[in-house]
Amino acid sequence: MRIGCWSILWALPCLFGLPAAGFSDTSTRPFWTEQAMFRFGDELFFTGRASCSPRAEEGRQKAYEAAIQEVLNYTQAPRLTGVPVETQMLFEDHGDIGCPPGTVTVWRLLRIPEVPLDAMAKRARQSVRQILPETNSTFQAIQDLTLRVGMSREDIHERFGLPRSVLMRRSTRDVQYDYAQFGLMLTVDEAGSLLRWHLAAPQSATASRTSPVDWIPPLKEPPLKSNPNLEPTLDLTDRLRGLEARSHHELKEDAGIICSRRWPRDPNLQRTCEPYEYEHLKLIEKQARQ
């Protein structure tokens, strides 16, 4: 059975709504909703939560304020000035346990460059030491989730949980892990060892950035010139660009394969799953061509 140049091996159930927010239960919340703060590369991430908000807009604002408070707790500064703060991701849960019907719990993940933030923290600690010389000036411990080439599949899952979707390219056997609710795309080899990754720019960067800090775009590998007959190298971290468009028939075949693997003992659930999975694959194709 032909599955095309790219094969969808497995995909977690998902819902599509606002591009900046997800809606799910506890089992499918992104890993960062359980982290107050963490480091990834040379940037720091802080999570704020607003529980049982009557409106999503109100919850987003309160979650932002809660995340900013986490930043202030880390820096020990009285206010946050001169540091670029961006929203990396929002996550919304309309069925949070313990909340009244009609309310929403919102998590907001803020992304801040480490260097200016730590510089602010050092200044704040110096000011405190001038008043209280015996004050401990060490930084608050923060979990480091930075990736490294060669990291195993198990280590990746331990850090970030299961990806939202997993895709494999037939010609190279490289596998992509898509952590869409964090903006992270990983590429591993057939044995599960990490080859490369790309973290998407903050969602708010285009609309609200006022600081002259540029987020690094994904690197693109130049095409091979030594042998024109070889297939050009593709940067698989570029969020599925370069996927070949597939026909309606191929997408239906792939949807059937996914659903049969997800519900191997229940044909009824397979038939129910297929149209939803087909729409999911169609959306991936559309995004890949944009």
Structure description:
Helices cover 30% and strands 21% of the residues. Helix 5 (248-262) packs across helix 6. It contains six helices and ten strands; from the N terminus they run βββαββαβαββββααα. The protein has helices at residues 56-75, 114-131, 153-160, 205-208, 248-262, 267-289, and strands spanning 6-11, 37-40, 43-53, 86-93, 104-113, 143-144, 165-169, 175-179, 184-188, 194-199. It has a five-stranded antiparallel beta sheet. Among the domains are: 26-144, no CATH class; 245-290, no CATH class. It has 290 residues and is of the alpha+beta class. It starts with 5 loop residues before the first strand and ends with a helix.
Shape: globular
Count every helix, treating DSSP H or I runs of 4 or more residues as helices.
6
> Strand arrangement, largest sheet?
1-7-8-9-10
> Which range best describes the helical content: under 10%, 10-25%, 25-40%, 40-55%, 55-70% or over 70%?
25-40%
Give the topology string: H per helix, E per strand.
EEEHEEHEHEEEEHHH
Oligomeric form of this entry?
single chain
Largest sheet: 5 strands, antiparallel
The counted number of beta strands is 10
Question: Low-confidence spans: pLDDT under 50, at least 5 residues?
Answer: 1-25, 205-219, 230-246
Chain-averaged pLDDT:
74
How far the N terminus sits from the C terminus, by CA atoms, comes to 28 Å
Amount of beta strand: 15-25%
Structural class: alpha+beta
Gyration radius (Cα, Å) is 22 Å
